[in-house]
């Protein structure tokens, strides 16, 4: 048909795209009329969109479009029903957890928990094709902490964590055991006090893959301490090693938050840079003491080399 809706809109399954597709299936063929259906946030002008919606309307292709649109809407409806069923089951689980927590925690703590839920649920932007229920609130009710507070973590990662581990996270005595189970910790081979190999063992784990995907998302961010950690490791060991290391860091954060009930607090970037700088200075000082070097020695050698 030579209709380029994909050029007019970045996402044809969005609000504007679905409105135009439904209008075409209903019989609308005028480009300007179709362009008038787009949301006011669309960057392209109405004339550009109308121009992209001009073409040859072939009956056989219109039939295919109608059939595929109905199939898409059908599966969207099925997924929505599945989300409702999941939400019902999760509410039953969180209700039991809440009852147990209420018996163990004083009433004052319950009040602060509710306040934290309200604060957390209002700030997270809903993701496209995300769960129909509030994952942030679910995390608070399930674990007592909001896992979406962690930078770079999305709803899919939290839901995978609940599905694969959930309340069984307490069975891991420490974060090292948890990351080893995920096959994100290096398998160090030590002989005579020296590390001869520290490769991360291979293996398929749905949750570890979710953490790797989250780490890759953080790697694409412009700022944040976790982004700086990734860049520092990637500079030394490469991107693949940095993804694994950051995935391990995220798994450790999840263990600390859910087992220790510690809310996530993002580190200050300036403090992180200052701490990294101090660690570099300490390493240099340690090497100087080991080699019996002084500042004067380094200055003299620098002058000779110059």
Plain-language structure description:
With 306 residues, the protein is mostly helical. Helix content is 64%, strand content 2%. The protein has helices at residues 5-8, 15-26, 31-35, 46-52, 59-104, 107-121, 135-143, 155-164, 175-181, 206-219, 225-237, 239-260, 269-290, 295-305; strands at residues 189-191, 194-197. It has a two-stranded antiparallel sheet with strand order 1-2. Strand 1 (189-191) and strand 2 (194-197) form a beta hairpin. Mean pLDDT is 80; it is low at 105-124 and 302-306.
List the helices and strands and how they pair.
Blueprint: H1 5-8, H2 15-26, H3 31-35, H4 46-52, H5 59-104, H6 107-121, H7 135-143, H8 155-164, H9 175-181, E1 189-191, E2 194-197, H10 206-219, H11 225-237, H12 239-260, H13 269-290, H14 295-305
Antiparallel strand pairs: 1-2
């Amino acid at each position: 048909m030579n209709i380029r809706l994909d050029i007019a809109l970045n996402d044809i399954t969005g609000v504007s795209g679905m409105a135009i597709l439904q209008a075409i299936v209903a019989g609308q063929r005028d480009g300007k009329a179709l362009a008038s259906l787009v949301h006011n946030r669309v960057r392209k002008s109405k004339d550009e969109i109308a121009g992209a919606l001009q073409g040859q309307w072939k009956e056989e292709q219109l039939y295919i479009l109608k059939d595929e649109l109905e199939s898409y809407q059908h599966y969207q409806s099925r997924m929505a029903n599945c989300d409702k069923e999941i939400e019902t089951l999760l509410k039953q689980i969180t209700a039991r957890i809440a009852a147990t927590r209420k018996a163990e925690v004083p009433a004052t703590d319950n009040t602060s928990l509710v306040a934290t839920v309200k604060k957390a649920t209002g700030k997270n932007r809903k993701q496209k094709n995300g769960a129909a229920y509030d994952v942030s609130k679910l995390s608070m009710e399930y674990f007592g902490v909001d896992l979406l507070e962690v930078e770079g973590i999305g709803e899919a990662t939290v839901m995978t964590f609940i599905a694969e581990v959930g309340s069984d996270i307490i069975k891991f005595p420490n974060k090292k055991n948890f990351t080893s189970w995920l096959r994100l910790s290096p398998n160090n081979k030590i002989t005579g006090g020296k590390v001869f190999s520290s490769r991360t063992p291979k293996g398929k784990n749905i949750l570890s893959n979710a953490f790797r995907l989250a780490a890759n998302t953080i790697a694409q961010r412009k700022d944040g301490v976790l982004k700086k950690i990734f860049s520092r490791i990637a500079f030394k060991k490469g991107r693949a090693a940095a993804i694994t290391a950051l995935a391990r860091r995220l798994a450790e954060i999840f263990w600390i938050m859910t087992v220790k009930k510690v809310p996530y607090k993002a580190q200050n970037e300036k403090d992180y840079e200052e701490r990294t700088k101090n660690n570099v200075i300490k390493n240099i000082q340690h090497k100087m003491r080991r080699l019996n070097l002084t500042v004067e020695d380094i200055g003299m050698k620098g002058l000779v080399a110059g």
